[in-house]
Fold this sequence. Notes:
This protein is mainly α. The chain is built from 14 helices and no strands. Helices cover 73% and strands 0% of the residues.
Amino acid sequence: MGHQKAQKFRREGLIQLLSFCAFLWLICVPALGQDAIQQQQQRLNSSDVEERRDAVMRLGAMRREAASRAVLPALQDAAPIVRATAAKAILSLGSDASAGYLLPLLNDKDEFVRRETAYALGHTKSRTATAALSERLLIDKEAGVRAAAAVALGEIADEAAVVPLVQTLSSTKKANPFVLRAAAVALGKIKSRAGTAALIATLSNETLPSDVRREAARSLGLIGDPSAAPALKAASISEDPFLADIAFEALKKLNRG
């Protein structure tokens, strides 16, 4: 009996100790986190570009709203690499808030900054970015930025982006294959039947690179519009085995639907 009481006493003591440790953790961790934020925030004033970039990366890695807020001045940094790094480091501010701070950077003079900003806007999934990303997709001079905009529009999955994405796929101008592929993938993620006709035309166009046609086939399967069946059947016997397999799988999805 005395042994059981001793065990009970030890358990209660251990529980009290753990509770006290948890209490200390709750008090100390936020303070330590704030100290870490302030330490990196001070580094943002360094004259060394690499140190500022590293500080931005470390703040972003904390995944805390306070840390992302500390990064905001870096969006205006003189060095493009710092601005570009800051684009993803502010995402802990939340979807629409992050998008609001990022949108002006889509007009940055530096291609790398615009591209990274577009990708970051995709991560926000905020539909407030749809119009600006659509504009970048259609008018930006750099293919890398246009492709990033298409990728972001697919991540946001706003049906309002279907028209510019279709316009990109249907353009008579010689388009960058990476941009076309990104547009095809984005239409599949949005899953609107309004994109079906452009994807069918892309799939059926044998002058286009195989990887672009493959993504068109994959997206047609995701959309599930029965009108795509003839084009997918034709592609399922393509000499390109990868395209044939993707078209066959897409066709099965249509049949199941």
